Amino acid sequence: MNQPANKNYARLCEHFQSISHFEHLGALGDWDQAAMMPVGGGEVRGAAMAELAKHIHSLKTATMLAPTIAEAELEELNWQQKANLREIRYQYQQANIVPGSLVEAKTKAAYRCEQAWREQRNQNDWQGFKPNLESVLALAKEEADIRAAALNISPYDALLDKFEPGMTSGRLEQIFGGLKSWLPGLIEQVQDKQKHQARYAIPHAASDAQALFSRDVMTLLGFDFNHGRLDTSSHPFCGGVASDVRLTTRYDEADFTSGLMGVVHETGHAKYEQGLPLDWRGQPAGLARSMAIHESQSLFCEMQLGRGSAFLALLQPKLKQRLDCNLSHDQLLNIYSRVTPGNIRVDADEVTYPCHILLRFEAEKALVSNQLAVSDLPDFWSAQMQSLLGINTDGDYKNGCMQDIHWAVGEMGYFPSYTLGAMYAAQFRVAMEQQLGSVETLIANGELSSVMGWLNDNIWSKGSLLTTDELALQATGETLNPAHFKQHLIQRFSA
Amino acid sequence: MNQPANKNYARLCEHFQSISHFEHLGALGDWDQAAMMPVGGGEVRGAAMAELAKHIHSLKTATMLAPTIAEAELEELNWQQKANLREIRYQYQQANIVPGSLVEAKTKAAYRCEQAWREQRNQNDWQGFKPNLESVLALAKEEADIRAAALNISPYDALLDKFEPGMTSGRLEQIFGGLKSWLPGLIEQVQDKQKHQARYAIPHAASDAQALFSRDVMTLLGFDFNHGRLDTSSHPFCGGVASDVRLTTRYDEADFTSGLMGVVHETGHAKYEQGLPLDWRGQPAGLARSMAIHESQSLFCEMQLGRGSAFLALLQPKLKQRLDCNLSHDQLLNIYSRVTPGNIRVDADEVTYPCHILLRFEAEKALVSNQLAVSDLPDFWSAQMQSLLGINTDGDYKNGCMQDIHWAVGEMGYFPSYTLGAMYAAQFRVAMEQQLGSVETLIANGELSSVMGWLNDNIWSKGSLLTTDELALQATGETLNPAHFKQHLIQRFSA
Q1: 3-state class (DSSP) for residue B413
Q2: What is the pLDDT of residues A182-223, one digit of tens each?
Q3: A287 CB near a chain B CB, below 8 Å?
Q4: B149: left (phi over 0), alpha (psi -120 to 50) or beta
Q5: Distance of CA B34 to the CA centre of its chain
Q6: Which burial class, exposed, middle or buried, applies to B14 when counting CB atoms under 10 A from its CB (0-12, 13-18, 19+)?
Q7: Does B225 touch chain A (CB under 8 A)?
């Protein structure tokens, strides 16, 4: 019999290919329930998604995996195959820690909580939301405790590790502590500087026209509509799978500017997904590296690129055409450079955004370590908003602790990825400019594709073949270095 | 230990509840690929759906089923539980006949063929479609042969049995032979009668306005938008699950009349799904009875009810309001009573429609029994259309043998259900009128809900608790009797 040399590795690949097919259906279910599903479909869908989660979990913890992985590690593999095997092992270990019954219970509770949250948030109904959040949090804590015991780390660190492998609250406290030392001063300084700047009225823009304009912008950024689509949902996100990326946004007719940058942000995520290595589709090594790296791509598009002068110059004539908007390039630049402390994280400018993350990081840590009860969350929120951004959110749950989808679906430990992503984005830009010259000049010269090409070559096409540190090191010559983000903000806002 | 009395039966219920969750995801995938998915997503989706089909097949053929079913049959069950067990056994037997590898291959081939068909049909590209259809047909034949051997019936009968348990080509030849004896004469007679009737121009109607009007009509028919939605697709269908029914339609701006009755038709399917017994959701006994009964509900809505005078009187003022359409009630009635032989099955009137089914029934039988090659299908089609409806379809594949989705997705043996459904619809109406009086009078008196109530009580709420014959017998006092359909057509069109 002619046995393939790497039969154990090949068997693992086949198994994880199957898993990716079920994950495909899960991604579709997630997208659908946020963008399409009528509310009455939620109960049965929740049960179906929980069943699916349980099945995927059973596949990832199949008894054949441990011995097959051990055998595969003795086989002759090239470096990409070794990387894929490393990711397979990681997925197996991660799944094996948590019992299937907990996975199912978590999925069910998350669906129930999120479905209700969609309406409760509109109604500012904290009392309705609270017990659901408590259920979701209890399960998140149960998972955190199990993971913490298995990995010998703290419960909150065990949640962080799900989204950003290897990241710890100790390291985050260091990074965020650094931020806290200079960011409040910068915010004050920029606000002072912008105090006397003119304010421009945003013209009304119909949702239909914004939808067409959004497609223009996505096309400009190279989004492949043959492998994806754009819809609306109450909380914008990028979902689906690499071969079929599902973006959502929302349109505010009174202010198109936030939705527009939301689309640019989500398109950054989408470009990453669409650029993942074709040869590794369906394998763990073909997945996006981590949540921080994912956010680095959306924030690169939104912040580094989208709010820059050259990109806004590309948008300005299209804005005139699609939205009948007469804002000049200078006015757009003014609007998109404005620093204004506000309630809503997703609407925050680049400078105040990290404050929203600092708050959530502290709240998550406290919730998971039982130092904060859900019932005390609104007061904690308001106090932190007061201290960080001078805003009182008493009684305004809708624009306070009920604004985000993350906790409603049980994703505790995700928020730090946003600010880590902003830091990686700044770091990638510095490296890119060392090789290609100024990003602003490239775009002004019609070479946006060179910018995208660099991201494709250095980030997207790597999938998970490299570890996060290897990826950063190969792309930029160093691992995460928060100094670039500080430098970027100072240069853009206070120079 | 306190053992439940029916522990084997309970275990089967739990198992089939799981299966229904995976089928939920399959229904979502089907709807999405027809209504939402970009073409480039098709390849990976096809693989995911094939994986899912294989998994569902493995659940339906689990080794525990045979002994557990045997044990459950000895347990004390009430009549509904016995009916559910009968349906469980039937599903197990059906699945057990066909190997999982064939299920997977069929799903893959169907997805590939259908995805390509969507564009090939637009392009009238028979040469492109032919090899895909040959692949799909080869697998359908393989399935037919396996089923035929197991059930000791002919291959084509084995396919019929999937959609209409117990139906045979012998019985269909008898029923359809009866049709052939009087239908051509009726068509000629009605055309002659209508020859001098005025023809009314259909006003242009924007798609957006038609979409709003479609929702009005669905609401009028009692569609529950909290448990379903309406979208567009190139081939209208009713999909999703009972708790979340997904209808699709298409809008022709030059002629809204066909799309409108398409919506009424699909809403008939949807009402059946939404009316299935809540207590049996997720169990085989809670599913719709058969394809013919399903079509009886859509055709009851579209033909018995939708094209009747009283229902059109309800629509007329709304048509004026939403579509700025000035057609009078008489003119609408004239339009919807018009009998005109045409190419397209889904656009056919009530009288010529069965001819489209006769053609497809003959073609399917011949294809499956190797008496007709795919390459000869267009000629066969054109000859039959010529003979049945006096229409030449030479070279017009798009409006000929490429018009339907059914064969593209490997559904051979489905088409007869449409005409069986029309016959059941006529039979149900007779029984309903014996109990409630004239349907036309009920609607004219604002009692459409009584009509729906009868269908709910006698058909929808029964799910699969009764066999098809039991259902017809309880509802109408007899099993399928094609005489009512003949009587209906004669009364409506030639009286």
Answers
A1: coil
A2: 999 999 999 999 999 988 999 999 999 999 999 999 999 999
A3: no
A4: alpha
A5: 16
A6: exposed
A7: yes
Which of A4-8, B150-154, B328-332, B405-409 is predicted least confidently? A4-8
Tell if the CB–CB gap between B28 and A32 is shorter than 8 Å: yes
| CB proximity B51 to A under 8 Å | yes
Q: Which of A266, A302, A364, A411 is catalytic?
A: A266
Catalytic residue among B87, B143, B266, B273: B266
Query: Has A73 been annotated as catalytic?
Result: no
Contact A24 B39 (CB under 8 A): no
Q: Do A48 and B24 touch (CB under 8 A)?
A: yes
ipTM of the shown complex: 0.92
Enter the tokens of residue B77.
């069950």
Mutation target to probe the B interface, by most B beta carbons within 10 A, among A14, A51, A245 is: A51
Residue B107's pLDDT band (cuts 50, 70, 90) = confident
Given the DSSP bridges, would you call strands B244-249 and B228-232 parallel, antiparallel or unpaired?
Answer: parallel
Q: Residue length, chain B?
A: 495
Q: What is the pLDDT of residues A437-456, one digit of tens each?
A: 999 999 999 999 999 999 99
> How far from A134 is each of A229, A308, A376, A403, CA to CA, in Å?
35, 42, 12, 16
Contact across the interface for B38 and A229, Cβ inside 8 Å: yes
Instruction: Give the pLDDT confidence of A348-379 residue by residue, as tens digits.
Output: 999 999 999 999 999 999 999 999 999 999 99
Residue A1 has pLDDT above 70, yes or no: no
Q: How far is B316 from chain A (nearest CA, A)?
A: 29
Phi, psi at A238, each rounded to 5°: -115, 115
Q: Is the pTM of this model over 0.90?
A: yes
Closest CA to A409 of A135, A180, A69, A6: A135
